[in-house]
Amino acid sequence: MGKARKPIQIVILFLIVLLGGYAIGSSVFGGDGKPKEGSRAPSFELLGLDGQTHTLKQYKGKAVVLNFWGSWCSPCVQEMPALQAQWEKWRDQGVVVVGVNVGEDQMTVENFVKMVGINFPVVMDTGRDAVRSYGISPMPTTFFINSKGKVDSIHIGQLDLSTLDAQIGKLVSR
Amino acid sequence: MMGHAPFIANTKCECGHQNPVGTVLCEACGKPIGEEFDSSENLEMRYDGVARRSQRVNPGVIDLIWNFFSSVKIAIYLIVLTLLGSMLGTVFPQESTFLNIDASTYYKEQYGAAGQIYYTLGFSHTYESWWFVSLLVMIGASLVICSLDRVLPLYKALTRQKIRKHRQFLTRQKVVLIANIEEDPEVWVTRLLQPLKKKGYRVKVDGGALLAEKHRFSRWGPYVIHIGLIIFLLAVLARGLPGLNMDQHLAFPQGEITRIPDTTYYLKNEKFKVEFYTEEEMPEEFRGKKVLPKLYQTSAVLYQCTADCIDPSKEPQLSEVAAHDIQVNSPLEYKGLKAYQFDYDLTPVLRSVQPELINSANGESYGKFMLEMKNPERSFQVGPYTLTLKEKYLDFGLNEEGQPVSKSPYPNAPAFLFLIKGPDLPSAGQQYFYFPKQVDKAQFQQASINDKLGGQDRFLELDVANMSDVDFAESTAYLNIRVDRAMPFVWLGAGIVMLGLVLGFYWQHRRIWLIVSNGELTLGGHTNKNWFGFRREIVSILERVDMAVDEKSLDNGGGLA
């Protein structure tokens, strides 16, 4: 039985390290479940204004600027022209701007898109699923997601043209 | 403890048995070994004197780690540290209990500098912190290793007990009797069998030597407790796995089927009601002073999605699976999902209106149509007129440039802009602004807006004839939706702990060794608790063989309980 001891000890210690590592690891990195800079962007599956289902996966290989907005939020309205301008500037270089409308109905979104004159993809998060998985509280919030699907940076509040341009430039160069 | 062992210890007993390093009492005959032999104190009977598994002459790295966790001293330090750490988490409220509070500012505002320090040091989430979880993991490791290191040698020692022990093993027990016996040793020992068996002892005899033992299982109590604790800890750990635990607070407007996120379930609040105690029902001192709630009840129906659940472009197909009148402490339960009454809001929320199109010149009504606040139809045919919905503002207001906007996504002050086409109207149609709420009509001056849009000679009006044409959610119930699939295992672990406690506390492992030779009886007894009862039992057994013994004379010292 003396010979069997060591392997048993090693197996038990290994199991403890495995389970303990999981427990400690999830307490350190798990956090509150909200994505942070450097973590993987949560997937979403939302109905677009075009009637199609949009997912994050379909933009794989592209840098994604994910903008959460509502028609009633005035800084969201004011940053729309900047987003549209940057979408036109960068769309040929593998950058896609996606607007996520939070909790409004199709008519409101359609009228809004027509009014501000944007043509980048807009999806509707009526059940606030993406809001939950991205941990959005104030709006607007913009996630800059790189081509590998990792969150590069998070911007809370209104974006202006030049910082947006710099952010996207940084995103593409990586 | 390792320090005491000489580098090369002679662990061979005079009975010929080779004992492992760390043995205190010979595994075969019970003769004290090493330092224990030179002492005249009571014997160290822990683990029956056998060596713990990990005790070795030359411990390697793995042995050293193993020995660290095998130490009871370390285990006690770990437990004390965990208790002190837990105390830190009770100073201020924990972040995990907040629903709509921003933790980064809360502590400073509420508790000042102390709160800020508390938050900065991470004590606002003590029980999820890396150091607290590390302590728990180390306690878990200690539980497993401590038990394994002791239970196997103890099991072996107790199943391979020799009947005839070394004389010193007997005389250095805490219960000792030495007396003269005139009779033939074997005859006397045989006479003792019946009374011992009557007391529940299992007896083994070897000539003039005897070993009587009962309730050995009580020795496994502590290890059963450890198994229970390990299951408990693993269950708590498993709560972190996806799908095993959920705790969310959701709003359910009356009459709307609302999805429960991260599940395939939908819940409909059919009716929420709150009742208060009437003046007559309350004690006199409360009358006119207090409002006491009597009942909060949400009549809820739970649906499960059966098809088209994920695809947002399709309507999910639902089937009813459960219904319950949810009250405080009476949740709706279905397959581990529980919905508890949590809060309510009695503000009515407008859902739809059915306005009537009227010719204000002659009072003629062209009929009514259903106008939903959310996802309304875009076009309505009312009599000869076609109404096209151009704009919708749920919370009407004007922005800085004077343009109409919605101030929030909630239907607080809904407004609709229609383009009406039909007889006696301009061919391009006529615009009409409609505020369903009477208060908004007045505040935003619907009539004068429409006069501007349609001119003074406009003759069409939209109006709601009576309240039955207005549909609103009377109230909103807030429910706490919980899933805790690890809970049965937490209970199982707790149950096993309780079983172990009962085993260890209500029974005692009692053993009596005796040798009769050369006209002398040497008796030694050992139990793990209740020495008083044990001595009384020995006295009553000896009485049965006509041997009068004073209870106190059995006491061999050593601080007995």
Automatic annotation (TrEMBL), chain A:
GO terms for cellular component: cell envelope. GO terms for molecular function: antioxidant activity; oxidoreductase activity. Keywords: Cytochrome c-type biogenesis, Disulfide bond, Redox-active center, Signal-anchor, Transmembrane. It is found in: Cell envelope. Residues 35-173 form the Thioredoxin domain. The keyword Disulfide bond applies. CDD domains: TlpA_like_family. Transmembrane segments: none annotated. Signal peptide: none annotated. GO terms for biological process: cytochrome complex assembly. Gene3D superfamilies: Glutaredoxin. This is Thiol-disulfide oxidoreductase ResA. The gene is resA.
